[in-house]
Design goal:
Helices cover 29% and strands 21% of the residues. The protein is an alpha+beta fold and 509 residues long. It contains 14 helices and 19 strands. It folds into two domains: 100 residues, Roll (Ubiquitin-like (UB roll)); 352 residues, Glutamine synthetase/guanido kinase, catalytic domain (Creatine Kinase, Chain A, domain 2), CATH 3.30.590. The N terminus is likely disordered. The strands form three sheets. Strands 8, 11, 12, 13, 14, 15, 16, 17, 18 and 19 form a ten-stranded mixed beta sheet that branches. Strands 1, 2, 3, 4, 5, 6 and 7 form a seven-stranded mixed beta sheet that branches.
Amino acid sequence: MTSRPRRRSALKSRPQIRVFAEERSDHVPPATAGKTALDFIKKRGIKIVDFKFIDLPGMWQHTSVPANQVDEGTFTAGIGFDGSSIRGFQEIQESDMVLLPDPKSVRLDTFCNIPTASFVCSVFDPREQAAYSRDPRNLAVRAQEYLRKTGIADTAYFGPELEFYIFDHISFDIAPYQMGFAIDSEEGHWNSGDTETPNAGYALRPKEGYFPVQPSDKHMDIRSEMVLGLQEWGVDVEMHHHEVGTAGQTEIDMRYDTLLQMCDSVMIYKYITRNVARRHGKTVTFMPKPLFGDNGSGMHVHQSLWKAGKNLFYSTAGYAELSQLALYYIGGLLTHIDSLMAFCAPTTNSYKRLVPHYEAPVNVAFSKGNRSAAVRVPIFFTGAKFAKAKRIEFRPPDPSANPYLAFSAMLMAGLDGIKRKIDPTKAGFGPIDKNIYDLPEREARKIKSVPGSLDASLTALEDDHGYLLEGGVFSRDLIETWIGYKRTKELQEVRIRPHPYEFYLYHDL
């Protein structure tokens, strides 16, 4: 591998003022039906219409058409495409699929030089004459519908905290005779000794990147530009800041929203942050662990259930002001945590983050205000006047997850806990209101850890997925396809390749 390039021109959750506070209405979208979407296209002088949809692993794909080819029938008949060319979708002999744009999702794509309207789409299966069962967005719709049918609640709110790195350079080589990667960042501590370019000496030490001001924080303006871009696309933002990791680790917190809308917002979030970084000659990665020896990037997911405008997770009498229903929800998450990890930490790289002492939530326990537990109950604000802010935070997920699958799986696990009345204390999950990493070894051994590999998580999903099948939300076909894809396209491909560190360990044996 070529040597690291010279310098050109980091996050785990800490106390943050994030309130699921006042009752809110959904965003008023720029269009609410096919006709008003067409009005948007006409009034904005749109020349190209872009249709975005998500593949099974979790990446946006798109196709574009001239605006004069879009009419009201586009929103009912859809746009045809080859499903066999999309990861995790169809075989070549059954490849005709249809995109159905959501007219409420129309936005001006601010990253196109040609006036372009962007729509988020779901996938329709013309053979079954139904919503495509492997489309992750359709699955999230089914999860919301199932929640309402249970009668337990009518709305699930999700508030993910996505963390990511902004780098100046990433290169990687996977040739059979040469493998490796190189990362560079103007914030990287490894550049503190640079004498070949001007060096002001403001280098962040590893794991000390939380909340520094400029000039140590070199990405303030880029983050602000990302925030303004998100707002232009209708995504509410609460705050942004530098995170714990050196070399540009970042967090931008979106305001909580309903399950489907938040999944769409996560994809918009990734699209905007990547494209803003590109404008500045930089690159964004949502890899859970891009740097050895520094913090990984997580996606802690705040969640709560509501009914008729009331937060069902709040109680004046319960532990950490949680209702019994909320505790059952926690019981479901922790009971099914091993199989959940197959969707919430779905890459081989995920498990390089999930190791002790890097603020990684590997301990299968719950607690109030404790970031060493898998489930944390935020206690920034307490008392009846903050009843609407009460929620739980599930900390193991990371931003490599497909949000439609991960959020839906979390909801299904929580609902299973409620239906089966799984009390997390009786199940042995705590609460543990002290730093688990500081416990004596004998005491710490009693606390279960999350799976240590993607392989183990996939095996857990094979053994424990009945709760996901309830209400037809997940299908056996989707689960089997997910497991097969991950094992053959990712696990096996990583397993058969020599690792650079193996040469360090073994080449001279």
